[in-house]
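Q: Got a minute? One more chain.
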Amino acid sequence: MLKITAIGNLTHDVELKMNETTGKPYAILRIASDRRYKDRDGNRLTDFISIKVRGPLAEFCATHAWKGCKLAAVGDFETICFEDDPNRQPGFLIKATEVELLSPKRVEDAVQAAQQPTDSEAA
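A: Always. Here it is, folded:
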């Protein structure tokens, strides 16, 4: 069994899509993660990792994640071949079973939560 964890910052807002066959939601997240070391010229190296989330996890990400937020994704590793472009090198994708948001909530979200009455206040 292969399990991989990747931590990085989301490169774009999450776009929820629907699988045409199953009708279930999914999203492809892309994160940027800096390496701990620099190259010979002193430049920091960054890796970009694609993560596929499905079902309720995709809906959670679409609701709560935003461009720039730090997240951790855990899942299986899948190699991707590009049949339409045989000269393109294969890539990989993490099929996530878990996603944890590591950034604090956005200010707007915290303000909205503070403005909503709690159940005891509403009664």
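A: The chain has a mean pLDDT of 87.
Q: Perfect, thanks.
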